[in-house]
Amino acid sequence: MEETLGTNGAYAIIYEASSEGGRQLGKGLAKRFEALPIEKQIQAYFDFATMRGLGTITAEEFQLEPFRLVVKGEMSYIKGIITDADEGHCYMTAGFSTIIEGLLAAQGIQKELKQEETKCVSMGHEHCEFLITEK
Length: 135
What we know:
The structure is a single chain. This protein is of the alpha+beta class. It has one domain: 2-Layer Sandwich (Muramoyl-pentapeptide Carboxypeptidase, domain 2), CATH 3.30.1380. Helices cover 41% and strands 21% of the residues. It has helices spanning 2-32, 38-51, 96-106, and strands at residues 56-63, 68-74, 113-119, 128-134. The protein has a four-stranded antiparallel β-sheet.
């Protein structure tokens, strides 16, 4: 897909395709985690994603108002495959922000979030890092 559409085109399609699914997953997970405060729900999702093989994912910084979350990922599925890219390649994690939107929505907190990949192992960084903030 990347060869045909370029990096940005491939990223856009995968991100859009995962957005609504991410919100629904977040709402579903919120039912299982409802006894936990929101920051613990977010980390519980990251623990689930880690168990599913995306790599070790942790919430490094969290603030609800205004929303700010820094996510660190040791992305095992991409590490060593691409190391000299100009842009990040963590397409599979593009839905983090929409999953968190779903977790928040289940608690009656409506936020539209955006996600920026600030570090990526495909660009030679030691780990991947994402900044999630309000749009």
